[in-house]
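Batch job 17 of 40 flagged for manual review because the log was empty.
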Amino acid sequence: MTADPRLSMNQATIKYASLDEALQVTAQGGYRSIGLWREPVQAIGLDAAARRLADSGLRLSTYCRGGFFTMPEGAERRASIDDNRRGIDEAATLAAAGAPGSTAVFVLVAGGIPDGSNDLIGARARVADALGELAPHAAAAGVTLAIEPLHPMYGSDRAVVSTLKQALDLAAPFDPATVGVTVDTFHIWWDPEVLPQIARAGAEGRIATYQVCDWKTPLPADVLLGRHYMGDGVIDFATLTTAVEATGYDRDIEVEIFNQQIWDSPWPEVVARTAESFDSTVVPHLAASVRRRS
């Protein structure tokens, strides 16, 4: 079995797989790249995780996730900032262990409005402050912080950064190699400014990762789990992928799906179905010059 060389399996798509299981099933599915999550890595320890990634022969596409630093100054915020620094170091170690072409990209989800507050503006300002603290550490480690805007329905509890423009504005004070953005179709497909903002992100050199999955209604009771295989919903992957490719983006493209039915499915089945949906919805719109990444 083979998958398109630019396809990466974000580990969240096979959430219940351990690190060893995720690496095995992804490699056996013909993939060349994987996006890892912190919890499975921490379950076995960073050094062991790095060795196992190296043994798998897979590239690292991203490391998820950091952020969640919108709370006011205090012990909780200090703990969050310190944890993000550790995440940056973990991303650097894993990228160094991955196959050639691995990228040290640490995805950041800003966090929601703190409990007991309705100060959205203040929460966003504290995201900017956190980036100012973390950027020097990321630069020294050779890691790119990838701010991920989330759909506005997550604004209260997960991410006060809701649009690509907001993410780019937050990244603007920093070197693009240090602070970039995550372009995730599930979160940005609805935005009337998405195409000019993708072009802007490309012109600024800030697309750190491109992630794909589909949007379909009705959403489940837990809207976090409303993601689907590409082609099962309403997202225009042709237009979005063409726009991303037009910027010169040539890195791996991750499929990241949160869906209980998919999580409960056999992992080889998910790996195969993911590759099939990627081939039919995304691959036809990849730039010919980078379509077959080695």
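Reviewer: the log was empty due to a logging misconfiguration, but the result itself is present. The chain has one domain: 7-290. Unflagging and moving on to job 18.
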